[in-house]
Amino acid sequence: MKIYNNIEQLREAIKNAERPIGLVPTMGFLHQGHLELINQAKKDNKTVIVTIFVNPTQFGPNEDYEKYPRDIDHDINLLKSLETNFVFIPERESLYTENHNTWVNVEKLDEKLEGHFRPNHFKGVATIVLKLLNITTPDNAYFGQKDAQQVQIIKQMVADLNLSIKINSIPTVREYDGLALSSRNVYLTKDERKSAKEIYQSLLLAQTLFEKGINNAEIIKKNVSDHIIKNIKNSKIDYVSITQESSLEDLQTIKDSALLSIAVHVGKTRLIDNLILSKK
Ligand code: AMP
């Protein structure tokens, strides 16, 4: 496994790498969710590049950029054990020079769901992902369904900007009790961690209601919200949404399937999760 901090040195190494190349962009503090992305990338590609970069431009002014968990040594050991080919750990200054003035806005999709609560988040995400795609020139790139809106935004960007890269989305990896793995789960206190499993329970409740024939989105959303408020102390819901999966347009009535997305504060920690509601 080769580790690069320098863009030009990585580019040089990639010139001689065997294709197809798979890219897995991460912010580090790796967990099993990231590892599943890497495993899939290994299956599909001859060369796998993992990037670790806590991207400052996707954090709002009052968000957790400074305290976002980091453990580079642990990450490097994990990546070695997976036989990752290249790891790219750039410095902030090399990706964002003083006169960085170009941004990628994926309009419409970036206003929905997370967009209401994190206004410039997807501008930061789309910009860093395009930069990483340009630097690493992959054939495939891998993203988690855990961040369903991010997947749609990246797919839209790749289509709109005519990039010849396949975007692959990987199912959400969960803890034994259903909580979606997230680097931010370490913020939870013991009690919060216990009750956070109810987020997934609320998604399953929605799926059960849908399977029983309830297709009115308002009724399902109300049941999900009530479940969360009742079962998670100190919780504050940002949204419970039922949308079409790719356009993220709100649905009133669910036909065959829909994306159910949740953002909820558990104490001081903001968690997101989602499930595709579908007829089994
Ligand atoms: P992050 O390091 O949080 O920016 O995540 C890097 C990639 O891992 C993103 O594509 C995420 O969607 C994905 N990811 C994060 N958590 C999970 C999870 N629990 N299961 C699957 N993929 C995940």
Task: Please give a handful of descriptors for the protein shown.
binds adenosine monophosphate, six-stranded parallel beta sheet, 280 residues, alpha/beta, 9 helices
How would you characterize the overall build of this protein?
The chain has 280 residues and is α/β, with parallel strands linked by helices. It has helices at 7-15, 32-44, 72-81, 92-95, 114-117, 121-136, 148-160, 190-211, 217-231; strands at residues 2-4, 21-26, 47-52, 86-88, 140-144, 166-170, 235-243, 257-266, 269-278. It has a six-stranded parallel beta sheet, with helices on both faces. The longest helix is centred in the C-terminal third of the chain and has 22 residues, at 190-211. The radius of gyration is 19 Å and the shape is globular. The termini are far apart. The model has no long low-confidence stretch (mean pLDDT 98). The structure holds adenosine monophosphate. Residues 26-27, 33-34, 36-37, 143-144, 146-147, 170, 172-173, 180-183 line the site of adenosine monophosphate.
* Structure classification: alpha/beta
- Number of DSSP helical runs: 9
Strand order of the largest sheet: 1-4-3-2-5-6
The helix content, as a percent range, equals: 25-40%
Q: Report on the biggest sheet.
A: 6 strands, parallel
* E-strand count: 9
Query: Cofactors and ligands present?
Result: adenosine monophosphate
**Overall mean pLDDT:** 98
Residue runs with pLDDT of under 50 for 5 or more positions: none
Rough outline: globular
* Rg computed from alpha carbons, rounded to a whole number of angstroms: 19 Å
Amino-to-carboxy terminus distance: 42 Å
